[in-house]
Design a protein that fits this description.
The protein has 3 helices and 11 strands, in the order E-E-E-H-E-H-E-E-E-E-H-E-E-E. With 180 residues, it is of the alpha+beta class. It has one domain (2-178): 2-Layer Sandwich (Alpha-Beta Plaits), CATH 3.30.70.1560. The strands form 2 sheets. Strands 1, 2, 3, 4, 7, 8, 9, 10 and 11 form a 9-stranded mixed sheet that branches. The protein is globular and about 45 Å long.
Length: 180
């Protein structure tokens, strides 16, 4: 079984929360009531978008293990207005504190047609923001956020749009679709 879930902001990518203040944090169990499916990879609590869940261990490993280089596409709203030239270090493979990243596919995009985020992204009249699409094949901890910050354009909002050939298109925010 494969579930495509459009994960909201502020939701943990796990079914239980073992933290001390667990009563205040939403988990996958607040949205999905299907037994024996598990996330294939993670999506940070403050990121939104596509999360794949499956009961197939082999598929789960293929999606989440970086050695398989499954492409993951993100839409990032960044602070400022990067030029195409500003994005070149990401295309070449930027070096972060934990080493050099593989080259990413990066392009400026029009603001995507998305749901409202709760809470909304902070808005400052004097500071522009821009949307970019990034496709990476690694998946290090907070990688996209660290990459955009490293070139001087911090991420304000991050939405995973696709993993491999699967995407969030047609899946409402906070809902899932069973595809297999």
């Amino acid at each position: 079984m494969i579930l495509l879930f459009n994960k909201p902001f502020n939701v943990l990518s796990q079914f239980t929360d073992n933290s001390v203040d667990a009563s205040k944090r939403q988990t996958l169990s607040d949205f999905i009531d299907i037994p024996k499916v598990y996330p294939a990879g993670r999506l940070d609590r403050d990121s939104e978008g596509l999360l794949i869940l499956t009961d197939n261990g082999r598929l789960q490993a293929r999606i989440s293990n970086p050695k398989h280089k499954t492409p993951k596409t993100y839409w990032a709203q960044v602070e400022g207005a990067p030029s195409d030239q500003d994005l070149d270090p990401l295309r070449r493979g930027i070096t972060l504190k934990d080493g050099k990243c593989l080259p990413a596919k990066v392009e400026l995009i029009a603001p995507p047609d998305l749901w409202e985020r709760d809470p909304p992204v902070r808005y400052r009249k004097s500071v522009l923001d821009t949307w970019i699409s990034l496709t990476i094949t690694e998946g290090r901890n907070r990688q996209v956020r660290r990459m955009t910050a490293a070139i001087g354009f911090p991420t304000l909002r991050l939405v995973r749009a696709a993993i491999g050939n699967w995407s969030i298109h047609g899946i409402d925010h906070g809902t899932y679709k069973v595809i297999g």
